[in-house]
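**User:**
Everyone, produce one record:

**Assistant:**
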Amino acid sequence: LLHQGVSREHRLESIDQANHSSYFRNLDVDLARRKQKTRSRHASLVMKIGIYGGAFDPVHHGHLILAREARETFGLEKIIFVPAAVSPFKQSPAASPKMRLLMLQAAIEGENEFVLDDCELRRPPPSYTIDTVEEIRRREADAEIYYLIGEDNVSTLGKWHRFTELEKIVRFVVFDRTQAGTKHDYPPVHRRIDISATEIRKRVAAGRSIRYFVPRSVEEIIDRQKLYQEQVK
């Protein structure tokens, strides 16, 4: 009887240990699942923002349509328009920084998802994209940054200042406006927009209408300030 009692007690102890181990295994699995859900929830809550740099000389409906398309395609919380100073890869803008800034302000007025940042115009030259991104990252520390560029910029990307670092902290998005098939590995926004700032400047210089090429408020600034009157390039 004593032996049977000891055996029964031993079996109960073994069962209790097994249940104890099983409990903690299940607890570990449950904790792991909760951590995964927390990470997934956190990932879904990370704000995604787009930076759209350019001369905007002048800003036109093509810029605005592409910005809206990028925001909707990639689920961006907002698009930050950054008027450029002087690009080492392009000729100097025809309009002054003040005028380009004024036109951008007018173009995006009332658009809650579009904001303006004049950091490149305030910064002493030379002004580089990596400097702009780092400045915005300091303000938007937890945001995932998408940098929006035209297809014509792809061929010079490797020459951008500190490009290797830049590529690690932003996700480049390419506006494929011509659908010409330039080869690159960046996610594209396919939207054919047959409007260019160059064409607008030429039309103004030739005395032709730019109605529907630019927002009405931008057209009024160009008329009032007599911008691009002599611009033929």
